Amino acid sequence: MTTESLPTPRTPDSAQAPALRWGVLGTGWIADTFVRSLHAHTRQVVQAVGSRTLESAERAARAWEAPVAHGSYEALVADPDVDVVYVATPHNYHLPHALLAIEAGKHVLVEKPVGLDAAEARAIGDAAERAGVFCMEAMWTLFLPKFDVVRQLLTDGVLGRIVIAQADMGERFDPPHRVTQVDLAGGPLLDLGTYAATFATWVLGEPDEVTAVATPGPGGVNGQLAVALRTASGAIGSLHTSILADSATTANVIGTEGRIDLGTRYYLPGPMTLHQRCGPTLSWSEPMVEHAALHFEAAEVARRIVGGATGSPLRPWADTVATLELMDRVRAATGLDFEEARAVRGL
After folding, report:
1. What is the pLDDT of residue 219?
2. Rounded to whole angstroms, how far apart are CA atoms 264 and 286?
3. How far from the centroid of its chain's Cα atoms is residue 347's Cα?
4. Contact between 336 and 84 (Cβ < 8 Å)
5. CB 170 within 8 A of CB 192
């Protein structure tokens, strides 16, 4: 089929989402960016901050205008005035901190990737199901208006049979950045590759076959990866991620009747173009506000929790697990592991 116009995104106004009281577990860059987006675009309340030290929590609370600072994560999740906990600690601590919040009866939004492997994702999902609380991965890209336009085009079959998905994600990082640290599960796979892996599984579904190659990087971590995958339908995926250099960071979906090109830094708000085999070329644009758009995922969380849901259809927990299963297979193919990162957390 062809279309003469692009669909309108169905993304609700974040400012209209019901207000919840958030506890922020962690005080790093992503937590700061998330909170500032909430303040600017939503009615969400940053109620409390939890850190390893009271000094760190108080510093963040002042910056974020949060009324309460807790000098431990245990105190944060026990706070009766917190409705939902945003887990924003390093990758290898997502599992224990998500479980800590869930066991305290809190709803959780867990930064991506939610664990070091699919087994950790399943453990979090199972715990949330037992507790009856909301649980979602903070894969914020899928909540952007641009991606709802793409979602509708795929659902409507505008591209015909999907045959190829490609995604690239490369950004240079030098020591001592945490991405170059083995004990923090550094390398490109979890930090950058999670976007490419998510894109592939979102578009193509789970692969039947996965192959990968890798090269070393600074600090003893992996430097870059190239992944090829194939699904039962015969569709293929081509993925690349690197911390050695800045790549074009583009993505596209190719079908028998057309293709969708997502511009540079495709995972951010920005342009996309639909090229149709027998129809007009159509383009979408939106303000390129980068991570200031994190509010869309928070608003989705608030709407779902108030509506009594324990997850979101825009990022079901099964899809989160499927993405980590793909990354598990990439690690198996390349001999990568995160054993040192597991060891330092003491589990």
Report:
1. 87
2. 14
3. 24
4. no
5. yes
**Mind listing the pLDDT tens digit for each residue in 199-211?**
999 999 999 999 9
Residue 347: predicted pLDDT: 55
- Residue whose token pair is 């995604």: 167
Residue with tokens 């583009």: 250
Cα–Cα distance, 163 to 182 (Å, whole number): 36
CA distance 229 to 23: 39
Domains in the chain, CATH or no CATH each: 14-140 (3.40.50.720), 145-289+316-344 (3.30.360.10)
Residues of the chain predicted below pLDDT 50: none
> What is the C-alpha separation between 250 and 49, in angstroms, rounded?
35
> What span, in angstroms and rounded, lies between the C-alpha atoms of 178 and 187?
9
Are the C-beta atoms of residues 215 and 224 closer than 8 Å to each other?
yes
In sequence order, the 6+-apart residues with CB closer than 8 A to the CB of 47 are 21, 22, 23, 66, 67, 68, 79, 81, 82, 83
- Give the SS3 label for residue 136: strand
Paired tokens of 127: 């715990």
Nearest to 327 by CA among 189, 123, 130: 189
CA proximity to 140, closest of 296, 12, 29: 296
CB 25 within 8 A of CB 88: yes
Which helix H or strand E contains 323, and what residues bound it? helix 317-334
DSSP state of 238: E
State how far the Cα of 56 lies from the Cα of 174, in Å rounded to an integer. Answer: 25
Integer Cα distance of 84 and 94 in angstroms: 15
324, two tokens: 């980590």
Amino acid at 14: S
